[in-house]
Amino acid sequence: MDLQLAGKRALVTGASSGIGVEIARHMAREGAAVVVHGRDRERAARTAGEIEDAGGRAIVAIGDLSTDEGADAVVAVAEEELGGVDILVNNVGGGGSAEVRGWQDIPVPDYLDTYNVNVLSGLRLVQRLVPAMVDRGWGRVVNISSTVAHQPMGMMHDYAAAKLALENLSLNLSRNLAPKGVTVNTVLSGLVMTPAARAYVEALRDEHQWPHEEEAMQQRYIEEFNPQLVPRLGRPEEIAVAVVFLASPLSDYTTGAVLRVDGGQIRAL
């Protein structure tokens, strides 16, 4: 299927590792020029190099999006090298308490930091890039959320609260921007086996003495921590294909949506 992304310009934040790498790769395969954002130039350049080697077009933009200065730097590169951005994928996220701190162990400054990274980082780019999308009459914003926003686990309180706030922001923006030709959607990701997620699951495996065999380890994690219908954890490319569809002209009639790619973890309407 042709997703009609040839000639489009996409900025993928957090594209130097994990899910972001696959989103950038898939976007380029469909013909978009990609701004590979990261904070580590070497890793971001590696992603961009892989895209270029495969025949795509990619440039690197380095900046800390939790600051106005970092957002300005990233936008400046995108505008100088590509002339602007048609598609914004806000994939940057995470939080200092994303390990296993209890509610009483997360100080208020950490909540503020997590909110800044997960919500305001994306908002900074929306404020800088979406006005030009409106002027052109076409644009896409895709935000990445997490199942913990809807299925609280009694942990990662700051991260879960921030991700739900991001979804609310997405829905509000969709109301404002749909008449202007700009859609705003959210992909709700279950636990995906990125290197960081693997380290987390393997630490639990060692703590609880689960089997080392991959399938058995994932099944034990699901049984004991995240019950879901599909008996395995997610793959980065499964998130990427959902994002690329929502970024394409084929999704013109979809806005304000939360697309769950979670193996059936969330059990609610």
Characterization of this structure:
By secondary structure, the chain is α/β, with parallel strands linked by helices. The chain folds into two domains: 9-192 and 235-261, Rossmann fold, CATH 3.40.50; 193-233, no CATH class. The chain contains eight helices and seven strands; from the N terminus they run E-H-E-H-E-H-E-H-E-H-E-H-H-H-E. The chain has helices at residues 18-29, 41-53, 68-82, 108-136, 157-177, 195-208, 214-224, 236-247; strands at residues 9-12, 33-38, 58-62, 87-90, 139-146, 182-189, 258-261. A seven-stranded parallel beta sheet has the order 3-2-1-4-5-6-7, sandwiched between helices. Strand 5 (139-146), helix 5 and strand 6 (182-189) form a beta-alpha-beta unit.
Count of individual helical segments: 8
Unreliable residue stretches: none
Using the 3D structure, state the CATH architecture of the largest domain: 3-Layer(aba) Sandwich
Fraction of residues in helices? Answer: 40-55%
Mean pLDDT: 94
DSSP strand (E) fraction?
5-15%
CATH classification class of the largest domain: Alpha Beta
N-to-C order of helices and strands: EHEHEHEHEHEHHHE
Gap between N and C termini: 30 Å
Which word captures the global form? globular
Spell out the CATH superfamily of the largest domain. NAD(P)-binding Rossmann-like Domain
The total tally of domains equals: 2
CA-based gyration radius:
18 Å
CATH topology of the largest domain: Rossmann fold
Main β-sheet, in a few words?
A: 7 strands, parallel
Q: What's the β-strand tally?
A: 7
Strand order of the largest sheet: 3-2-1-4-5-6-7
Helices and strands: which structural class?
alpha/beta
